[in-house]
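User: What would this chain look like folded?
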Amino acid sequence: MGSDDGGRDYSLTEIFAIKFVLADIIIIAALLFAGPLYALAITALLVLSVVLVWYLMERSKEKERKREQEAAKRDTATATAADEAETDPVTTLQQRYAAGELTEAEFERRLDQLIDANERADEADVETSELSLERS
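Assistant: Here's the prediction, encoded as structure tokens.
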């Protein structure tokens, strides 16, 4: 909150206290030297400036929260996509069957296709660590 040159760091409360003391001095000076209407105008401007700064800070915080939420959603989507990409075909079949997307006959047919593909790959001497299936 304070200076970066080794000086004292001020808390937000201290900064506002200093600001209001200085504002009071300005208002009193305006009352004494310029009259009550000028003091009232300066007071209104000071209050308006505080409200404006508060509004802009809240708006900035809201934008930052939205950015963080969007980033979290993207990270979650990326992690989910990576997890789905890392699951083997048999697990994917099992999940689809459990979710009701496949009938038992479709599940068995596709599982047989995976087993056959694995056996053909073994015969061709191709590495298939994702499809390490054996007929039982």
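Residues 89-131 form one domain. If you want, I can go into more detail on any region.
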